Amino acid sequence: MPMREGSCQIAVCKRGGGVYYLTAHARPQGWKALLKMENVSSSPVFPNVTSAYENTTRHISDYQGVQRILHLLSMVVYGVACLLGVMGNGLVIWIAGFKMKRTVNAVWFLNLAVADFIFTFFLPLSIAYTALGFHWPFGKLLCKLNSTVAFVNMFASVFLLMVISVDRCASVVYPVWSRNYRTPKLACVIVSGAWIAAVVLSTPYLVFRDTATNSRNVISCYNNFALSGDYEAEEARKIWQTRHKAMIITRFLFGFFIPFSVIVVCYGLVAFRMKRRRLIKSTRPVRIILAVTGSFFLCYFPYHIFSLLEMAKASSDHELQLVLYIGVPLVSSLAFFNSCINPILYVFVGQKTFRQPIISAFEGAFGEDSLLATLSSKRKSRSISQAEIQMPNGLQLVPNGPLELSLSCH
Description:
By secondary structure, this protein is mainly alpha-helical. The chain folds into 2 domains: 282 residues, Rhodopsin 7-helix transmembrane proteins (Rhopdopsin 7-helix transmembrane proteins), CATH 1.20.1070; 39 residues, no CATH class. It contains 11 helices and 6 strands. The strands form 3 sheets. Strands 1-2 form a two-stranded antiparallel ribbon. A two-stranded antiparallel ribbon has the order 3-4. A two-stranded antiparallel sheet has the order 5-6. The longest helix is centred in the middle third of the chain and has 43 residues. 40% of the residues are buried. The N terminus and C terminus are likely disordered.
């Protein structure tokens, strides 16, 4: 699908996984035709800011200096995220998957690490894409996979964090039930469901991602929401806009709002129950879970805000256009960086001393904490006391195993 620009050249640049910027002066007619394509500014994880530039031809030269800095910053952030992410998450996978006893917490953290490892493993493609002047020589299949993997990582991570919050809530509200039925096997089944949901929600990006070649033989990887090469047709524009908005809303609801609403409710219940039972002091695994959840929120909340701003913006608002132009690469890099930060949190959060080996630090982070045992033992003791009060004379409860009781007559 060649793109015609008229007599003036127009360079389309893509940051990392896919944010495009205009880097040269172009005739308005050629520019508008090109801007019909969604991916003149959309990355595999990040919002589209295409129409932010539709009325800013006179400002493009002013942005070029900022643009070069943003592209360089993107490559640096991607390189750091790739190096730390592959090494750190690879180490987590090795420890949680092969060196530790299989526990419920180990299952959660192992799958978080797998999601981040796969994403950071694909980051060299984005680095190469930026370094090559935003030319995609890797083919349509990798164009589709690169974008899809990014979204699978986002959805899988937030779903796993939601599952962890529900697990913590169940452990506190129903400690005896959790002690009996909270098993690694059940955790694996639940994790499989989270992965399936993440893949299903990411499938549209596998369908819509496409490649196009311009008159300079520069190949772009972009979201072809209309599934058409005719960017001037009114019907294609309407389909593109409708699908683009649907993708942003779906991504916000299922990738942020609903999961974090569940997380807030669950941890609110946990805090309330722990305060009632005077168990305010949290264990290290609990602090790590809260730190991982908080880092995901801080890294992805700005991205979703910019997505919604782009969808609802007024194209004539130059100030908002400039905010989007500068802000999108920054929030994009922040979201990318989330994939390498978890292993760092596992080592440093809750540590009283940093002299212990890294493997021991990871094992302490992924181990089952004593909170569940404390709560279940308290619930068990209270149940026994209540039962003894209600028993007729001559009968008493006699322990018959860790969770079983039998009646004895005297």
